[in-house]
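I hope you will forgive my troubling you with a question about protein structure. The full record is reproduced below for your convenience:

——
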Amino acid sequence: MNGSRKKGLFITADIVAALIFILLDQFTKHLAVIHLKDRPSLILWPKVFELRYLENRGAAFGMLQGQKLFFLTITCIVVIGIIYILCKIPENKKYNILHILLVLVFSGAIGNMIDRIRLSYVVDFFYFVLIDFPIFNMADIYVSVACVLLAILMIFVYKDEDLEFISMKSLKGSK
């Protein structure tokens, strides 16, 4: 299989995976609206975990409330960066996990951006009562888990030369 065809398959797989993750995020948020909005929390594990509806107009931990334009701008920058990197990743097995993690971050960013555009807030509903953790959603899980795993990859797995494809030199079309 030639390089451009293989690259096309990677991009197609990335798009399909992202659509599946985004649809799952939006579907779970839809279920939260239907079953949790204006109702008491649904206790799944007493004093540990429950489903509680929240309209979050900020970011994690409720920071930057009402900064919709700021969040949309940052999301667009992140999404463009991820698309750039996904297009530059070499077709090599050692980058498969990087593809998956970037698709997860992309999907989470788009999932929450859809809410911000459509509703002016993000629907959150998972709540760990035991540790009083901020209420979150599937998109938040995608981004959080993927970022932790990306950090581990960058620190312990990939070397600097493994990531040269995203350097400024590649932007200029270096040799």
Summary: The CA atoms of residues 48 and 120 lie 30 Å apart.
